[in-house]
Amino acid sequence: MIINTTEAINSFYKLEFLKEVYGIIWMLVPILTLILGITIGVLVIVWLERKISAGIQQRIGPEYAGPLGILQALADGTKLIFKENLLPSRGNTLLFSIGPSIAVISILLSYLVIPFGYLLTLTDLSIGVFLWIAISSIAPVGLLMSGYGSNNKYSFLGGLRAAAQSISYEIPLTLCVLSISLLSNSSSTVDIVEAQSKYGFWGWNLWRQPIGFIIFLISSLAECERLPFDLPEAEEELVAGYQTEYSGIKFGLFYVASYLNLLVPSLFVTVLYLGGWNLSIPYIYVPGLFEINKGGRVFGTIISIFITLAKTYLFLFISITTRWTLPRLRMDQLLNLGWKFLLPISLGNLLLTTSSQLLWL
Hints:
Blueprint: H1 2-56, H2 72-82, H3 93-109, H4 128-136, H5 139-149, H6 153-184, H7 189-195, H8 205-208, H9 210-223, H10 248-272, H11 286-289, H12 294-323, H13 331-359
Helix pairs in contact: 1-10, 1-12, 2-10, 3-5, 3-10, 5-6, 6-9, 6-13, 9-10, 9-13, 10-12
């Protein structure tokens, strides 16, 4: 009898252990799926940028690595992994090593609150959009650490410029997000999308916040350090900015971070201004369009993902075309644009939005 009781207890503990393992696996599955999707998205963006820039400059672009050259970014990443990882002899090795990781991790965490489709978000927080802004503020710290840890005055100047640029354009960006939050009566990304769903194309926040949309567009390009705002790593006296002393996989992390950072604002433009996963037809709501049966719901979810990605890559096309069209600004012009123009205009836009909301009460 004692043996049977012991066996029952052991089997019970095994069952509980299996349940815990099963729960952990199901918790990791959406996270790993998101990371895989983001990685594929970055590879597609790199390929698109090379092809679009080649078209603008009347070149062919990558075409030999895989069909239409789509595996060229994968080949470049593999090459960087196997390159020698150099460390500055008199630099701070700890700061030098963890700087790129902080830049990448802070951007990856921003994807937690992005709804890729109907009921497809890792965490629907009531402060979703402001969590993104708070997390993205950590990335410049990683750039500063990289510049300081390199023991190189050019790298350090590049890190300082990156931090100054990020702070200058983060404030107008936050004010634009606050205006959208006031219009939608929520800071949840899911609620903001649903608030735009009733009137289809005409319900987009793009039409209610045209000034905010333009400021968000300019500020997000500056946050990503894309042309014409790529001064921290592009001016000739800074060599390559905070990336000067990096090689191998650490340099690759900065490269990945730049494209991850380009994808995040594109997704947030879709969510905040372009109606998210919803169709542009008034009174047609994507989840309600396919809720005939379970299979219909799955199909509706796939359609919502496709709509979100289509809008996102449209904005990406605009960002990439801007990079290969406009000339680079000077540092003083960049800071003047942020502090003297975008900040007062975004404050005025927030004041107008608040006034209109108060009048409608």
